[in-house]
Amino acid sequence: MSAAPAIAAKAPARAEGHALPVAVVCLAILVLWYIAAIPMNWVVTGPKIEAAGGGLANTLAFSWNEARPVIPAPHQIALELWKSVFGAKPWMPKSLIYHGWVTLSSTLLGFLLGSLLGIVLAIAIVHVKFLSKSLMPWIIASQTIPILAIAPMVIVVLGSLGFTGLLPKSLISMYLCFFPVTIGMVKGLTSPETMQLDLMRTYNASSAQVLWKLRFPAAVPFLFTSLKVAVAIALTGAIVGELPTGAIAGIGARLLQGSYYGQTVQIWAALFMGSFIAAGLVWLVGVAERFTLKRMGVRP
Amino acid sequence: MAGPVISARELSLVFQTADAPVYALSKVNLEVEEGDFVSFIGPSGCGKTTLLRVIADLEQATSGTITVNGMSPQEARLKRAYGYVFQAPALYPWRTVERNVGLPLEIMGLDNAAERVARNLDLVNLKGFEKKYPWQLSGGMQQRVSIARALAFDPKLLLMDEPFGALDEIVRDKLNQQLLELWGRTKKTVVFVTHSIPEAVFLSTKIVVMSPRPGRIIDVIKTDFPRDRALDIRETPEFLAVAHRVREGLKAGHSYED
C-alpha cells in the first residue's frame, strides 16, 4: 500500500516539470511580439505618436492599440477572438465559430476521403509490384504542384459540373492529405519481419489474411503518425480551397475579407482560430492513437 | 504408416549471387522416420537451416528430389503438414498469448480453438499467461508460446530452426527437457536445427552432422538413449562417446579451420 502514494506524488511533479518551460517560451514570444509591434507599426502609428508629443507612454499606447495595425498586439487579437467567438451567435456570419465550423466540416470530409484514398493506394502499391514503380512517381509529382496553382482550377471545373460548396474544398483537402498516409502506410504495411511473413506462408495463409492479420496491425503506428500530418494539412487544404472562390464562409473567406478591408486584427483572429482547430484535430488523432495502441497491447 | 516422413535424394540448392554461385546444399540424402527426433548440427553456412527451409517449402531445391509425407514440400505446406518454430519467437506483439497461439487456427478455420489453445499452452507450461502480451514475457516464455503456436493445429511434423539459440544455457537446458517431455507425450516427428553438440546429442534419436562449402551431410549418428532421458545422462560415457563422434565429424568437415 505504501507504494501507491509515491506513484501518485510522481505525476504532478512531472506535470510541473513541463509547465514551467512551456510558460517561459510563451512569455518570451509574447514579450518579443510586443516589442516587435512598435517598429513594425511605425509606418501607421509614427505620425500619430509624434503629433501626440512622443514619449514612451504615447509610443506604447499607439503602437499596441492601433485599429488597423501592420501587426496587432496579442491582446488585440485575444479581444477580437473573444468578441467573435463569444460575442456573436454561433450561426451568424459574424461568429468565428460559424466560419470555423464551415472550414472544419470540409476539413473532416477531405481528411476522411484522403485517408481512405491513402490507405487504398498503399495497399495496392504493396500488393501489386509494378504499381510501386508506375504509380509512385505520379503520386510524388502530384505533391510538387503548388496547391495554390491548381485549387482555382479544381473549384472552377467542379463548379461547372455543378459541384459547389463542401465537396470541391474537401477534394483539395483530400488531394493534400492522402500523400503522407500513402507514404506512411506503404512503410507500415511492409514493416513485418521476414519471420512473421514466413510464418504466414507455413500456414498457407491467403494474401487477404496476411493483410488483415499481419500487415495492417503492424502498420497501425505508422498510420497514426501519418494521420497527424494529414489532418493538419487537410485543414490547410480547406482554407486554401476557400480563397479562390470568393467564398463567403469559412476561415479562408474570413482571411480574404480581412485582407480586402485591411482588417489585420480580424485576419490574425481567423489565423488563430485556424491553428486552434488544427491543434484540436491533431490532439484528437493523438487521443485516438493512444486509445488504439493501448487496445493493441503496446508496451506503455 | 508407410514410408519415411521426409526423404531427400541427391538434393542440391545453389544460390546465384553476383560474383559466384553459392552451393548451400550439395547432394544431400536423408530419411526421417515417423516419431524420430532428428537434429541437424554444423557450423554456420553448412546449410542446416536451408535444408529445414527446403523441407518447409520456404526455399526450393535446384536439383534432386525431396518428399514430405510422400508429397512434394509445396503440397505438404498447402496441406499444413508441419508446424515451424523460428530462431526468434516471431510473435505478433498486438496479440495476447492465447490469440498468438490461436493464430493458425483462425487462419485455417479450425474449430475447438479455445480448447486447442488451452491444451497447447498447458503443454508448454504456460497456463495462466493467456491474457499477457508478448512483451510481458521472458525470452524463454516467448519461445514456448511460439512452440505452442506451432503445435496448435496438431501437425504430425514439427520443424524447429535453432529455437533456443538466443537463450542462455540455464533456460536452454530447461526447455530442452520440456521439449523432450513434449515429444514423448505427443509422439511427433521433430526436425531440429542447432549448433550445440550437447543439445543435439541430448535431444536426438538421429544426429545429422553437416559441413559447409558446399553444404553437405558428413555423418548420420543414431543414438539409443531412452525416450525419457534426464539431463544427467550428459555425464555418462555413452553420451560422451556420441558427442565425441559428432565433434570428430565436424572436424573432418574442416569446419573449424575458418
Which secondary structure elements does this structure contain, and how are they paired or packed?
The complex is a heterodimer of chains A (300) and B (258).
Chain A: H1 3-40, H2 42-51, H3 56-63, H4 74-86, H5 96-127, H6 129-134, H7 136-144, H8 147-160, H9 166-189, H10 194-202, H11 207-242, H12 251-260, H13 264-295
Chain B: E1 6-15, E2 22-32, E3 37-41, H1 48-55, E4 63-68, H2 73-78, E5 82-85, H3 97-108, H4 113-123, H5 139-151, E6 157-161, H6 169-186, E7 189-194, H7 197-203, E8 206-211, E9 216-222, H8 237-252
Parallel strand pairs in B: 3-7, 3-8, 5-6, 6-7
Antiparallel strand pairs in B: 1-2, 1-4, 8-9
Question: What features would you describe in this structure?
Answer:
The complex is a heterodimer of chains A (300) and B (258). Chain A contains 13 helices and no strands. Chain A has 300 residues and is mostly helical. The radius of gyration of chain A is 25 Å and the shape is elongated. Chain B is of the alpha/beta class and 258 residues long. Helices cover 35% and strands 23% of the residues of chain B. Chain B has eight helices and nine strands. Chain B has helices at residues 48-55, 73-78, 97-108, 113-123, 139-151, 169-186, 197-203, 237-252, and strands at residues 6-15, 22-32, 37-41, 63-68, 82-85, 157-161, 189-194, 206-211, 216-222. In chain B, helix 4 (113-123) packs across helix 5 and helix 7 packs across helix 8. Chain B is globular and about 50 Å long. The N and C termini of chain B lie far apart (43 Å). At the A-B interface, helix 10 and helix 11 of A face strand 5 and helix 3 of B.
